[in-house]
Amino acid sequence: MTNRHDLARAWIDYHRLPQREANAHPLFSAWETLDALVRDQPEAAWPIIRDLWALDPSDRMLALIAAGPVEDLLCQHGADFIGRIEQLARQEPVVRKMLGAVWGQSRMADDVWRRLKAVAGPSF
Fold it and tell me: What's the CA gap between 112 and 90, in Å, rounded?
C-alpha cells in the first residue's frame, strides 16, 4: 500500500470479505498495518482512521471501525485523542453515530470513557 488512502481502502475491502477467507487473504496485511500504527504510531493512524468512515459510512463498517481502530486508539492513547474525537462528534453526525459502537470501557481510562459517552450516539 503506497499511501494512507490505499491502506484505508484495503482495510475496508478486507472487512468485506467472507469471514472464512479473511485471515488467509492478502488484504489481512491492511488490518495488521493499521493495528500496528494505532499501537506504535497513533498520529500516523489517525488520518487513516478518519478516511475509513469517510470511505464507507455503512452501519456495518462504522461498527467495525468503532470496535477496532477507534476503540484501540482510545484505550491506548485516549488522552491524546479524546479532544479531537469530541470535536469531530459535534461536527459530523457519522462520527457521533460510530462512537455509539465503541465499548472497551474496561481498557479505557475513566475520564476518556466519560467524555466519549458524553458525545457518542446510541448503541446500534
Answer: 16
